[in-house]
Amino acid sequence: MRIRDLSFSTAFNLKAVAPYDFSLTVHKPAGWSLLTPFEILESDTLWTAIRTPSGKIFGLKLRSLGTVKKPEISCDVHSLKKLSMNERKELSNTITWMLNLEEDIRQFYALAERDPLVKVLLKDLYGMRITKRSDIFPRLILAVTLQMAPIRRSDQMMNLLINEYGEKIGFNGREILYWPPPERIAKADVKELEERCKLGYRAKNLKGIAESVSKGFPAIQELERMSAEEAKAKLIELKGIGEYSADIVSPHLGFALDVWSAKIFNVLLFGERPESPRDIIPKLKKVAEERWGKWRGYVFIYVLNDLDNLSRKYNLDLTEL
DNA sequence: GCGTCCAGGTCTACC
DNA sequence: GGTAGACCTGGACGC
Question: pTM of whole model > 0.90?
Answer without folding.
Answer: yes
